[in-house]
UniProtKB/TrEMBL annotation:
Coiled coil: 217-244
Record's keyword annotation contains Coiled coil: yes
InterPro entries on file: Proteasome_assmbl_chaperone_2, PSMG2_sf
Keywords: Coiled coil
Cited Pfam families: PAC2
Domain of life the protein comes from: Archaea
Protein name: PAC2 family protein
Species assigned in the record: Halobaculum magnesiiphilum
Length: 248
């Protein structure tokens, strides 16, 4: 049976969790990795859930190994970060949601689930990626006061992030979905910056230095290209949003 192994006990006051499962543009992955690297985060818990790849992750300059899916906490704010080093299936994501459902309720956690919407942008001339907000379980108020409009067209969120949102809807757990235009072929630091600056920073009060994502965009793309290549051909394991075409 799946479980979360808490390795650093601490108290939270209505925390926000940023989800970083790989998806279109690797937006959530880039956001989560950037937060873990930029803030003075500490490992909060390791995730052990059925369906997750049986693998051991390790970091540069450290002999310790850990699980490929982990939770980090920022000690100066009520911010939790889900970091994943591997693509996961929707079934594994749903199992993860079941693992943490009780803990979410107990700690009043509000997750921010991130999905990239495939969009072609013409370099810098393409403008800033558009971000949209959706919510379930009465979490609409989380987006009040933020520069996050409602979707301009009907759509569908699939893959791991879709499974997490579906689980939240079925169990009436508060959750926010962030749908952002993202490059369908390459890791997209620009889309990640929009999520950071429009939602994560104003909501949590952290200074995540989103500007550095574009400053080091090429390095970030190179670092993430191997993961992006692993995800090709495995559409069911890719978190993504897509517009639905309606005909009358």
């Amino acid at each position: 049976m799946g479980h979360i192994d808490v390795v650093s006990e601490r108290e939270f006051d209505d925390p926000v969790l940023v989800e970083g499962f790989p998806g279109v543009g690797l937006v959530g992955k880039i956001v989560a990795d950037h937060l873990v690297e930029t803030l003075d985060t500490e490992l909060y818990a390791t995730v052990h859930c059925d369906g997750l790849p049986a693998a051991a992750a390790y970091a540069a300059g450290d002999r310790a190994v850990t699980t490929p899916v982990r939770l980090y906490a920022d000690p100066d704010s009520d911010l939790l970060i889900l970091q994943s080093d591997v693509p996961v299936s929707p079934d594994a994501a749903e199992e993860f949601a079941g693992c943490i459902e009780g803990w979410f309720r107990e700690e009043s956690v509000t997750p921010l689930y991130i999905a990239g919407l495939r969009a072609d942008r013409d370099g810098e001339a393409g403008g800033s990626p558009t971000l949209r907000g959706i919510a379930v379980g009465g979490a609409d108020g989380v987006l009040d006061g933020l520069d996050v409009p409602v979707p301009e067209a009907a759509g569908l969120v699939s893959g791991p992030t879709g499974a997490l949102l579906a689980h939240a809807m079925e169990t009436d757990l508060p959750a926010v979905g962030l749908v952002v235009d993202a490059d369908p072929q390459f890791p997209d630091p620009r889309a990640a910056r929009v999520v950071l600056e429009s939602v994560v920073e104003p909501l949590t009060g952290v200074d995540a230095d989103g500007e550095s994502l574009e400053t080091h965009a090429e390095r970030i793309r190179r670092a993430k290209e191997q993961l992006a290549a692993q995800m090709e051909g495995g559409e069911e394991n890719v978190s993504q949003a897509q517009q639905l075409r309606m005909y009358q």
